[in-house]
Amino acid sequence: MLHTPALSRSSFWVRIAIGAVLVGLADLLFFKHAPGTSLGLFAFVVLGSVIFSRKDLLRDRRARGFVLAGVAFALVLADRPGLLAWVLFVVSMSVGVLSSRVGPNETAWGWSQRLAMNWLFALLGPVMDLFKVSRLRRGRGGMPALTLLGLLIMPLVGGAVFLALFSAANPLISNAIAALSLPSLSGQNILRVLFWCAVLIGVLSLLRPRWRKPLLALPERRIARPSASLTTSITLSLIVFNAVFALQNGLDLAFLWSGAPLPGDMGLAEYAHRGAYPLIVTALLAGLFVLVALQPGSDTAQRPLVRRLVVVWIAQNMVLVASSLLRTADYIEAYALTRFRIAAMIWMALVAVGLVLICWRMLAGKSAHWLINANAMAALIVLAVVSVIDLGAVVAGWNVRHAKEAGGRGVELDLGYLHTLGAPALVSLVELETTTDDVALRDRVAAVRQDILLNVRRRQGEWRGWTWRDQRRLDRVDVLQRSRALSAPVPGARDWDGRLVRAAPPVAPAPVASPVSVPLTSLTEG
Questions:
Q1: Among the listed ranges 75-84, 262-271, 355-364, which one has the minimum average pLDDT value?
Q2: How far apart are CA 358 and CA 355, in angstroms?
């Protein structure tokens, strides 16, 4: 059943008007323009519009908390506009506007359903509300919308007919009508209308949220009857699993953690890279086994030996995750850091948190809702932190400091990857350019830096794409230039990594064969 707050004609048209204003603002700021700090300003306008149209929003303490979270993410968007921060802003505001009709003990599973249904019904929300307003008019003795439409057909059609006749008789009217032109059905106009619809639907989902009851409950597993054979099988499985994990962890301690030389010609980087991701899959399977086979409250989960084996196994899984993190760190040390490798290490840390929560759920007899809530909270905290940190700048700074050219233990600096990072790599490139004495490297860095700097300045010169963070980058570049001026790269075509494209040597024309004179006698012979 769908539940919505009471609707009046005035509130309906006020929200439509607010939505239309926000659509116009979004069209001005974002259509065919890359967002900058303007995205944060738009988020603040949306937030203010929601507070203005939802008088009950600030009366609920939980709603106030999520509104403050929305303010925080709007500030992040103003400094560093990005998709992740925008999604977190929308989720925070959506939970805030739904809070006044949701109980205080709602779970993450319930919230996910409410958010999904709110966004789904927002697609048809304006049409549904239009019919509700029409019913309100009938109930108050007003004219239904369909009746009003029927009354307008005759004057509209008749007026169009007479206007056509007058146009044929009067060249002034016909010229004025000919001067009028409707927008063409070009691809750009179609995209613009779709953009308007998407913005309007998203805004109305906040201005007029919808609730759905009842919610789908988590499937409850009945606690199985005590079974000696099942308990024995799980106990033996845990013993075998612990033994196999002890073998893997022992090898990691002997070679990975101690730094001892590996047998044969295998290098540490190969050993580290080969096992990082399969070990995480192993840890995930271990957590799944505990969830399925050891339900809290079951007879098997209450056995002291089983509980001790599970704790030891989870502890071994934690060592396994730590080894995966160390493998990834060693591979980064030997090669380079990328945003994907940072995301992989964050994922490994979340896997470790999940394993601890799964173990604690079994030991403390917590519910499935508790486990989902705890994991969702951990994931949201990580996402919120990542939305603030500029991972590209972290990657660029680390690679420049640890590159072989800068005296580090890493490999040769991948200037092509730094070029792909764009603006986040600008300050690190300028720092390298102003400190290196390698003429060839300095020229390549200058070529990549010049392209990125031109793009950043071009974007900063367009008010819609201006950002505080890029402005701070430009200010930092100006400070670095005072110690050593930036040089212009050698003219010429460049590869993506800043290397000069060498022109192919000219191909010598093939020699022209001279005509061969054949003696007349040779033609007559034979």
A1: 262-271
A2: 5
| pLDDT for 267 | 64
pLDDT for position 270: 64
pLDDT at 500 over 80: yes
CA distance 215 to 234: 35
Query: What is d(CA 326, CA 320) in angstroms, rounded to the nearest whole number?
Result: 10
User: Degrees (nearest 5) of the Cα angle 330, 331, 332?
Assistant: 90
- Per-residue pLDDT of 37-68, as tens digits, reads 999 999 999 999 999 888 778 888 899 999 99
SS3 508: coil
Whether the pTM exceeds 0.90: the reply is no
Q: For residues 477 and 475, give the distance between their C-alpha atoms in angstroms, rounded to a whole number.
A: 5
The residue assigned the tokens 């830096």 is 449
Q: 319: which residues sit within 8 A by CB, 6+ positions away? A: 249, 252
Burial class for 9, CB neighbours closer than 10 Å (0-12, 13-18, 19+): middle
Whole-angstrom Cα distance, residue 112 to residue 108?
A: 6
Whose CA is closest to 49, among 22, 31, 69, 9? Answer: 22
Given a contact cutoff of 8 angstroms between Cβ atoms, the answer to whether 378 and 350 are in contact is yes
Do 405 and 377 meet the contact criterion of CB atoms below 8 Å apart?
Answer: no
Residue 211: strand, helix, or coil: strand
Q: What is the mean pLDDT of the chain?
A: 82
Torsion, CA 20, CA 26, CA 32, CA 38, rounded to 10: 170
Degrees to nearest 5, angle at CA 198 with 195 and 200: 105
For 502, the 3-state DSSP assignment is coil
Let me know: does 466 contact 460? Beta carbons within 8 Å. Answer: yes
At 323 the pLDDT is: 87
